[in-house]
Structures are given as C-alpha cells and as structure tokens.
UniProtKB/TrEMBL annotation, chain A:
<keyword id="KW-1133">Transmembrane helix</keyword>
<feature type="transmembrane region" description="Helical">
    <location>
        <begin position="268"/>
        <end position="288"/>
    </location>
</feature>
<feature type="transmembrane region" description="Helical">
    <location>
        <begin position="12"/>
        <end position="34"/>
    </location>
</feature>
<feature type="transmembrane region" description="Helical">
    <location>
        <begin position="202"/>
        <end position="221"/>
    </location>
</feature>
<dbReference type="InterPro" id="IPR000515">
    <property type="entry name" value="MetI-like"/>
</dbReference>
<feature type="domain" description="ABC transmembrane type-1">
    <location>
        <begin position="72"/>
        <end position="284"/>
    </location>
</feature>
<comment type="similarity">
    <text>Belongs to the binding-protein-dependent transport system permease family.</text>
</comment>
<keyword id="KW-0812">Transmembrane</keyword>
<dbReference type="Pfam" id="PF00528">
    <property type="entry name" value="BPD_transp_1"/>
</dbReference>
From TrEMBL, chain B:
<dbReference type="InterPro" id="IPR012340">
    <property type="entry name" value="NA-bd_OB-fold"/>
</dbReference>
<dbReference type="GO" id="GO:0016887">
    <property type="term" value="F:ATP hydrolysis activity"/>
</dbReference>
<dbReference type="InterPro" id="IPR013611">
    <property type="entry name" value="Transp-assoc_OB_typ2"/>
</dbReference>
<keyword id="KW-0472">Membrane</keyword>
<feature type="domain" description="ABC transporter">
    <location>
        <begin position="4"/>
        <end position="235"/>
    </location>
</feature>
<dbReference type="InterPro" id="IPR017871">
    <property type="entry name" value="ABC_transporter-like_CS"/>
</dbReference>
<dbReference type="Pfam" id="PF08402">
    <property type="entry name" value="TOBE_2"/>
</dbReference>
<dbReference type="GO" id="GO:0140359">
    <property type="term" value="F:ABC-type transporter activity"/>
</dbReference>
<dbReference type="InterPro" id="IPR003593">
    <property type="entry name" value="AAA+_ATPase"/>
</dbReference>
Length: 294, 347
C-alpha cells in the first residue's frame, strides 16, 4: 500500500488537529471508563462521605447473585436471537435487492431508513404495535386465541424487545450484505451455472462462502449492538420488566447503578461488559482483517 | 462431441440496441472455430448466447441435435473458460475441478479418475491442494482449462482465455490449447480480439464487425482473399496498405493496370511490396521510421500525394536508413481490389 505522507509546517499542528477528537474521547470515554474500573474495587458509604477499597468483593458477589447469572443467560438469548434474526432477514433482503437491475437503489434507500430511527423511537413504535390494549398485533393475535400481554408475560416482553431490536439492525446488516454480494464477481455465478449448480446451490456453495468475511464481521458488530445499543429499546418498552424478564446486562448496569444506587456493583458489571467488548474487538481485528481474495 | 448450428440468431438489448444481426453459422463436430473482431463487435455476446448466459431474441441455436434456445446453461452440456478464469476462490484446485462433476452426480471413483487425468495432462498435479490465489496466472489458466476438460462436454467455449497473460505465456498456452483441442477432438468456439491468436488457433476463422459476420473461412484463405475492406485491414500484421486508386493514378502516372470495374481502392500486404524496381506500379517515397523486429524490418514510408503512410516489410535488416529516399514497386498480382462504397472485394 502506498500511503500519502503529509508534511506539516510545524510539529504542533498535527497534535492540534487531532486534539478535539482526543479531548472528547478522553472526557467522555477514557476517563469515565477509568472511573468505573476504580469504583468497581471500592465501597462507598450511604452518604458518600467515605470510600474504602474492597478488592474483588463486587465481582465475587456478582457471580454468586442469582439475579446477575439469570441476566447473563437472558442477555445471551437476546443477543443470539437478535443477531440471527436481523442477519438472516438482512441477507434475504440483500439477495433479493441484488437480483434487481433497475429498482435496486430505491429499495436500498427505503430499507436503510429504520437505521436512522433512534433506539428509543424504535422501541416506542413497537410498543405501540404490541400494546396489549390498543396495539394492532395483539388485536390480530386474538384471532388465533393468543392473549398478548407483555406487561405481564415475560416471554412476550422478551419477544417484543427482540423484534424491536432486530428491526432496527436489519438496515445496517442489509447494507453490508448488499456490498458483499456486489463484490462477488458475476463470472463465478456463471461458471457455477455452467457447472450444473442451480440458483439455490450456487448461493450456498459459492456466494455464501465468499460472504463469510462480511458475515463474521456483522456477527461481531451485532453482538456488540445487542449488548450495548439496545438500552434505549428496552428502556422505552419494558424497562427490564416484567419481573426482570428483560433485564439484560446493560440494562442491569443502569438499574443497579442509577435506580438502586449500588455504584460499586454497577461498576463491576460495566467492567465485565467492557472486557467482553475488548475480546470481541480483538477477535474481529485478528480474523476479519484477513481478506479473502477474489 | 457435437456440431453447433446457429440459424438467424439475433440479439436485441433493451432500448432497441442490436448486438447481433440475423446470423448463420455452422460449426462442425470437432472443429475449432475462432470468433475474432474489435471490441463491441458482438463476439462475446454470441459466445454467451451459445453458453446460455444471454437470451436469444430470434433464431435458433442447436448443439448436436437439440435446439437449446430455452435450455439452462447446465443442460447444454458445454464448458466455458472465462477471461478472468472464474475459479472458485474458496475451493482448492481439486475442488474446483470436481465441482461440476459432483453437481451432476458423477460417481466418486469416476470423479477421481477424471480429475487426476486432467491434472496429469495439464501438469497441475502438484497444485491440486492449493487455493487459486496461491497460483500464478498461467497455472490458474490451466486450472480453468482443467475444469472444462474434466466435464468431457459436447463443446468448449473460450472467452478470451489468454488475454490476462503476458505475451510469452500467451504464446505457450496458445500452442497448448491447440494441441489439447486436437487430441480431445472436442468442438470448440474461441473468442479473441487478437488476430495473431485467431490465425494460429483456428480451423476456421469468423471475422465479426458490428454484430455481423464479415467473412468465414480458413485463416489463410482470409489472409489471401479478404472479402471486405474490414477483413483486409483486420487480418494480418502489420496491416494491409489500402490505397485509393485515384491518388495512386495521379502519382504513378498513367501506367495503371486493368482493374475490374468498380475497384476504387487497392490493397497490398506490406511484405508483398518489392523494394527496388520491377513489374508493377512503381512509387517512391521517404522513409519516416524503421521498426527492426529482428527477422524483418518494418518501413513506414511517406509518399508525396498519398494521405496515409505506407508500410513495407523487408526481410532481415532494412536496406535504407530513416529519412532516406526509397523506390519500390507494387506487383500487380499482389493487388487486392475493393469497392469503397460497398466495402467489398472486387474480383
């Protein structure tokens, strides 16, 4: 790779130019993250007058707390469901749009809109649709004898946040899958067609394996998304309830820390989440960056 | 093994763009036919229509006894070698070769036999377990050929298979393709824009221009008797000199031979022009440039009164230098007559 080098007139200028971004990163990301790590090892008295170092106490307690362990399982279910649903549907849509010759751009544009909707609004949209007294979906489900109520039924609540979170993420996945599909050379498809493979077989033996870098990348990004960015969706729809049924790890950080004011435990939880992201990021850089050559 | 017959084949793209005008062509069993022409002449489109990758607007294409117009590429029992090879990048060479056979439910031992046989013929046995990206251009080209021959199809279709190779390798592969096709005796259609490749490979040559066939015949027949101005200019390197009679008459002074009526352009191959004196139309000019190719020299000569530069080929070294005056003769027997209006040969 040939990199373009820019020569700056003075040594200070490059630092000045990156300073705004650095300052924002330090104030809003690095410093709070450091504070979280620090307070995860400390206990504060109820009046905030004294703090004492307690070591790994918060961490050890977390792993003995049934609520926390249940939340881990719940989060895993939620993350997997959202990742599989949003990636699966996005792939189907991308394949469909990729086959279009003329209207492709129009469909792509429309399919991208949900991504521009903020998580809270997306949550409220689905909350309206699923609302047990006024929503359209419960009304229709009634014909099948199903009494929808996510305010009382934990499973219903989980389905609601999975649907809302997946819907928002499809756009993102769709865009990447479409780009991936378009970079698979047409001649490979033609060669496979001559080699006697039908459209379905061509997709699974030629196109899908060639998409694997995209698929892997999206899997990591989606897991990250469900772990963190779904706070808004959950807060706007179920607020973790009913009876903890939708209290995922990221939401629990908030409820324990801000509602329960148990800052030590909440910090420990966010540190664990942070470690999880770091691991995912390392995996991504190590494996995704290896490119597949066409 | 099969013949290929095209009858009144047309291709019209959306927006009424005609790529192929009603075209007839018969390719005999075991024959290697080369479609040659400039970019956009419709040669690749025609090949893709035979393969089933493009629809046919009108006419019929038959392979063997069957009309294949409505058949899927897979059902036509043809194999194609693509310009970019189109090897499956995530599969090993062996898997690339096996793919078409597996899809057709060929028994395992038969697959192994054919793959090993093809690998042996093409000398790619050492690379069978490598991925295509670990191979050089020439090796990839062989794998692409291998993928075609393991199938033992009715016909091979080649879409400019050598254009991504360097000149030396291209020459080698050309000979190998010819040898392979002779020994397998599989009907082949080969598309190229390289007239040298076309001349040396073809049993029969089809020169195309603007979606139409200009001339069909043995390469040497086309060289000796080009049917049109286009073929005259396209086949042969360096190209034929095409000179307007009127201008020639004005400078050569009176002694014009009796040419058939309707002739207004004469053509002469650069290697048929005789430097010095002799029978024929005597001309003289100034040497602008000499290209020493090695075994022969190409002289670019400017003649007073002619718009274009004449090309002369001299065997060995040039007998004159650049900027020198040179006398030369166009022997009458070597002249080709053409009509400017129709663009056709006049005999």
């Amino acid at each position: 790779m040939d990199t373009k080098r820019t020569v700056f007139p003075s040594q200070g200028l490059p630092y000045l130019l990156v300073a705004p971004q650095l300052i924002i990163t330090i104030i809003f990301f690095i410093w709070p993250a450091g504070q979280a790590v620090k307070s995860s090892f400390e206990r504060e008295d109820p009046f905030g007058l004294s703090t004492s170092f307690v070591g790994l106490l918060h961490y050890l307690r977390l792993f003995q707390e049934p609520d926390y362990l249940a939340s881990v399982g719940r989060t895993a279910l939620f993350a997997l469901a959202v990742t599989i649903i949003s990636m699966g549907l996005a792939l189907v849509l991308a394949v469909a749009v990729n086959r279009l010759i003329r209207a492709g751009t129009a469909y792509s544009t429309m399919l991208l809109w949900p991504y521009a909707v903020s998580p809270v609004v997306a949550g409220i949209l689905w909350w309206f649709i699923f609302n047990s007294s006024t929503g359209i979906l419960p009304y229709m489900l009634e014909f099948f004898g199903l009494d929808w109520n996510h305010q009382l039924n934990g499973t219903h609540a989980m389905i609601l946040i999975i649907v809302a979170a997946s819907w928002k993420q499809i756009s993102y996945n769709f865009l990447f899958f479409l780009a991936g599909l378009q970079s698979v050379p047409q001649s490979l498809n033609e060669a496979a067609a001559i080699d006697g493979a039908g459209p379905f077989k061509r997709f699974w033996t030629i196109v899908f394996p060639l998409l694997s870098p995209t698929t892997f990348f999206l899997m990591i990004v989606n897991l990250n998304y469900t772990m963190f960015d779904t706070f808004g969706v959950i807060d706007a729809t179920t607020a973790g309830g009913p009876n903890q049924a939708t209290n995922t790890l990221v939401y629990k950080v908030y409820t324990d820390g801000y509602i329960g004011l148990n800052l030590g435990s909440s910090s420990a939880q966010s540190v664990i989440l942070m470690l999880f992201v770091i691991v995912l990021t390392v995996i991504q850089f190590r494996y995704v960056e290896r490119r597949v050559q066409y | 093994m099969a013949s290929i017959d095209l009858k009144g084949v047309r291709k019209v793209y959306q927006g009424n763009v005609t790529a192929i005008h009603a075209l007839d062509l018969s390719i005999a069993d075991g024959e290697l036919v080369v479609l040659v022409g400039p970019s956009g002449c419709g040669k690749s489109t025609l090949l893709r229509m035979i393969a089933g990758l493009e629809t046919i607007t009108d006419g019929t294409i038959s392979i063997g006894e069957d009309v294949v117009n409505k058949k899927e590429p897979a059902e036509r029992d043809i194999a194609m070698v693509f310009q970019n090879y189109a090897l499956y990048p995530h599969m090993s060479v062996r898997q690339n070769l096996e793919y078409g056979l597996k899809n057709r439910g060929t028994p395992r031992d038969e697959i192994d036999r054919r793959v090993n046989e093809a690998a042996r013929i093409l000398e790619i046995t050492p690379f069978l377990d490598r991925k295509p990206r670990q191979l050089s251009g020439g090796q990839r080209q062989r794998v692409a050929m291998g993928r075609a021959i393991v199938r033992q199809p009715k016909a091979f279709l080649f879409d400019e298979p050598l254009s991504n190779l360097d000149a030396k390798l291209r020459g080698q592969m050309r000979i190998e393709i010819r040898r392979l096709q002779r020994s397998l005796k599989t009907t082949s259609v080969y598309v190229t824009h390289d007239q040298l490749e076309a001349m040396t490979l073809a049993d029969r040559l089809v020169v195309m221009n603007g979606g139409r066939i200009e001339q069909v015949g043995k390469p040497i027949e086309l060289y000796d008797k080009p049917a049109s101005l286009f073929v005259a200019g396209f086949i042969g390197s360096p190209p034929m000199n095409l000179l307007p009679i009127a201008a020639l008459q004005a400078i050569a002074g009176g002694t014009m031979p009796n040419l058939p009526t309707g002739t207004d352009i004469v053509g002469i191959r650069p290697d048929e022009v005789v430097v010095g004196s002799g029978e024929g139309i005597a001309l003289s000019g100034t040497v602008e440039l000499i290209e020493p190719v090695g075994g022969e020299s190409h002289l670019y000569v400017r003649v007073e009164g002619l718009d274009q530069t004449l090309i002369l080929v001299q065997q060995g070294r040039a007998s004159v230098g650049e900027a020198d005056k040179v006398d030369f003769v166009l022997p009458l027997a070597a002249l080709h007559g053409f009509n400017k209006e129709s663009g056709l040969r006049v005999d």
